[in-house]
Specification:
homodimer, about 350 residues, mainly alpha, Cytochrome Bc1 Complex, Chain D, domain 2, 2 domains, two-stranded antiparallel sheet, 2 strands, globular
Chain lengths: ~350, ~350
């Protein structure tokens, strides 16, 4: 299968969105993320969500937290090809970074969750991730911890504040604080012309001239950030299939968004991933099959644009991508609420 | 097997150590831990050791860090009966808390490591814990991370600072900062007579009159803290075996220190565990078989002192033990050193 017009999808989108898309090829990362009207950011929710994010009690056996696979002390991923959930089970796709995920208009590799709130509900109940048998059991687990009850009351109010929706809302609120501003690139486009090396500046020109920014544009280099919530920005991958990379890296073993929607039109469609901090999130692609960033650049040029880059071009683009590593905010370590005199996990 | 003189071991020790042992039944927790002469505490080592403690790259597949089982965001344990290591493997014994471990004169349930340094070397190489095939591989793993190389040079100096010994020294140094002072009990014995409830004060009298403090004495309630490094303070458990608890909780499936030394005299000998923060470290005992603190108190009275406590006595002792929950210091979240453009874990 070889597409004659691999850029057809972004062309359609460009048409729909008008000139604003092209104008946003290079854009600084905002310092604040948008929040949905029904889940405004509050300090109480951020603090609660941070505890939940780090709390392995949200997994069935107390061994896996959100942070296990989306390590915010590091790249927001586990830097593994695929993650390991409860009982040593391996997932099917590589964990995407949680850093700057707040700027995506759809979550997961296949965009099957519209919001961070929807996303947070998935892994907790996924049998090979955190393995909770039901949302009710997750709620009971958290409700049994007195200090959590008090915090949910403070953050959400109401008669019965510990709900699965509110667990997800708190986690999503914390995640909206996970932003890495002030990368060398951001400083450069804000006017500090010394912020980028000559190599990175050549790379910046290349990603546009080669065609990468047709999809990797906008503040998060993951497509337009002003799409309606949940719409997502999708592209076919691989677009060009008659090259050695496709079989070498097993790119067609997973049909992408099609696996979620069962719609033939979604076969091999994927939500465009962010370039922010991409230098830190190896290994690459939905199956984590590509070990290094330079190889990922070669693969993308070939599979998406049918181009063979020279080594100097690859080096320059890698230098540019490294300039997208941002500043990770200092955070305090959480204290997890305790259950004096007993444990959630009483039996082997 | 029923011992006629279950307290014979502490009696011998009392004889050896003289009156100082009895005098230290109740003692405040120091705010600083002792450090060995060859590994003084420095800020560079604390910071480095903290990163290593939280770094899952010290496990073979990047899924388990020291913190996975010794969660310093919580009780310093995983609050599971036994821990889960790489590939979902379960350990044989319950993870002891890392909080205040610096005050113990021997590490592990069986005291088989003399120091925190020795202890830190164990789990990394244990095939069912962090699963590193060799110390050399652990060193190579860390050495491949540029920012770690720089930090080891700063912390240790010398031509080849990234060694397995230095990895252990750094982790141990961080662990020496994990101290929880100013519990209600500490404030009480320093003169704040309102710090303990009437219930806890009755419990405090009971642990002495019932006989618990024959072993659970000293600043860490784990026996004398001034023993020679590595000696440890051991007791037989269970001392009285003709009660229902022993079979119900499978206490004799594990021969304790004997499994490490193969010495018949060490059969069922265990290093006395700390009471500090014991209310937070359920489930209890070396096999994590006892879910609640009140049951643990009943079990200990029966198996070690052949006494049946009344429910009011149990309540009072539990109240006293809760007064030993200290203040957990505020910590900053670590940033783990990165490996731009590639990952330690490149293949599935």
């Amino acid at each position: 299968m070889k597409l004659k017009h691999p850029l057809i999808f972004s062309s359609i989108l460009s048409g729909l969105l008008g000139a604003s898309l092209a104008a946003q090829a290079f854009e600084a990362l905002p310092e604040k993320a948008p929040a949905p009207a029904d889940n405004p950011i509050t300090e109480a929710k951020v603090e609660l969500g941070k505890q939940l994010f780090f709390d392995p009690r949200l997994s069935v056996d107390g061994t896996v937290s959100c942070n296990s696979c989306h390590n915010v002390m590091s790249s927001g991923t586990d830097n593994r090809p695929v993650s390991v959930g409860v009982a040593g089970q391996k997932g099917g796709r590589s964990a995407p970074t949680v850093w700057n995920a707040a700027f995506l208009t759809a979550q997961f590799w296949d965009g099957r969750a519209a919001t961070l709130e929807d996303q947070a509900k998935g892994p907790i109940l996924n049998p090979i991730e955190m393995g909770m048998p039901s949302a009710e059991m997750a709620v009971e687990r958290i409700k049994a911890i007195p200090e959590y009850r008090a915090q949910f009351a403070k953050a959400f109010g109401g008669d019965d504040p510990v709900t699965y929706d509110n667990i997800a809302k708190a986690i999503a609120t914390y995640e909206r604080t996970l932003i890495t501003p002030n990368s060398a690139f951001d400083r450069f486009i804000k006017g500090d012309k010394k912020a980028l090396s000559a190599e990175a500046q050549r790379g910046m020109q290349l990603v546009e001239s080669v065609g990468c920014t047709a999809c990797h544009n906008g503040a998060n280099f993951a497509g337009p950030t002003n799409l309606p919530v949940g719409q997502g920005f999708y592209q076919k991958f691989p677009a060009f299939t008659d090259n050695a990379y496709v079989s070498k890296y097993n790119f067609m073993d997973d049909t992408g968004r099609h696996e979620a929607t069962k719609d033939e039109a979604d076969k091999f469609m994927w939500r465009v991933p962010t370039w922010r901090n991409v230098a830190l999130t190896a290994p690459y692609f939905h199956n984590g099959s590509v070990a290094t960033l330079d190889e990922a650049v070669r693969v993308m040029a070939k599979t998406q644009l049918d181009k063979d880059l020279g080594e100097a071009q690859v080096r320059d683009i890698v230098a540019f991508l490294n300039s997208l590593t941002g500043e990770f905010p200092q955070q305090s370590m959480v204290r997890l609420p305790t259950t004096p005199n007993n444990s959630t996990f009483a039996t082997k």
